[in-house]
Write a structure and sequence with these properties.
Helix content is 30%, strand content 32%. The protein has 271 residues and is of the alpha/beta class. The structure holds S-adenosylmethionine (SAM). S-adenosylmethionine binds at residues 30, 42, 67-69, 72-73, 88-90, 93, 118-120, 134-135, 137, 140.
Length: 271
């Protein structure tokens, strides 16, 4: 098995990978090989866009988007007529965002500033009306990283500004099945097999993306993309934010994106 990600894949996905054996080429969902697949799936994902835009509209001024990826939220934010600074760690993602901007109207392109940076430690030397961290991406950071994020966000917020971040809402979570095995279709029309492994109460969930079964059965090489996502319930984040001088002023419920749980958008201000 070719592997760039070191940890063993748990659950059903691990069994499937063992079955495919030496044909498996394993990569992280956010490395150079994984990024095009992420982008294909993100392009059809409209979750939280409406709710984010609704809050952003109420706070006029420049927007800082963290972990912007290939621009799933950046493009709608630009469509509001705002100036958007899009901070992202991976150059491969930023390249996709730049490609997307190249095809956008000149006005939007000129209002967007893609920046390579780490959301847990950044200093842009200016402030913003709104800082957005969508797609539950706060879960990519460990505790130390989140402390750095909160301090940096606080330093970049204009007085009266807002920090918007999404996370899981476990209030009505159901964990009947440890493994969810389903198919998703990307913007290209390509189908993907997605397996999410999340034992009840576990603090991480693992997602593996594979070709559909029938395709994998005949392929000489099977691309497996993996990612591990921390589960950070809203209550926990609210406590961490308070310790960092940031107060949640409202929780906006987000539409369900899967059978297991909902996400929630936290609207936060500096205190
Ligand atoms: C789940 S994706 C979300 C991308 C985009 N917001 C969207 O909705 O499609 C998470 C993104 O966070 C980026 N990322 C991971 N760690 C980061 C960090 N420390 N600082 C900035 N970006 C990071 C990844 O490269 C990836 O593009």
């Amino acid at each position: 098995m070719t592997t760039t990600a070191r940890e063993a894949v748990p659950g059903v996905a691990g069994e499937v990978l063992a079955e495919y054996g030496g044909r498996v080429s394993r990569h992280d969902l956010y490395d150079e090989v994984g990024v095009p697949v992420y982008h294909d799936l993100a392009a059809v994902d409209t979750s939280e866009i409406r709710e984010v835009l609704r809050v952003v509209r109420a706070f006029p001024g420049p927007v800082l988007e963290l972990a912007a990826g290939s621009g799933r939220l950046t493009m709608p934010l630009l469509a509001l007529g705002r100036e958007v600074t899009a901070l992202e760690l991976k150059e491969a993602m930023l390249d996709l965002l730049r490609e997307r901007l190249a095809g956008a109207p000149a006005g939007a392109r000129e209002r967007c500033m893609p920046v390579q940076g780490d959301m847990s430690a950044f200093d842009l030397g200016r402030t913003f009306a709104v800082v957005v961290l969508g797609t539950t991406s706060v879960s990519l950071l460990d505790e130390e990283g989140r402390a750095g994020l909160y301090a940096a966000v606080r330093a970049h917020l204009q007085p009266g500004g807002r920090f918007l971040l999404s996370t899981v809402d476990l209030t009505d979570a159901s964990a009947d099945d440890t493994d969810l095995d389903f198919e998703a279709v990307g913007a290209s029309g390509r189908r993907y097999r997605m397996i999410e492994h999340w034992p009840a109460g576990a603090s991480t969930r693992n997602v593996t993306i594979l070709p559909p079964k029938a395709e994998a059965a005949h392929a000489s090489q099977v691309l497996a993309l993996t990612t591990s996502i921390r589960v950070l319930p809203a209550d926990r984040l609210e406590r961490e934010l308070a310790d960092a001088g940031l107060a949640v002023v409202q929780r906006h419920t987000l539409p369900a994106t899967g059978p297991r749980h909902r996400d929630v958008l936290l609207e936060v201000e500096a205190v």
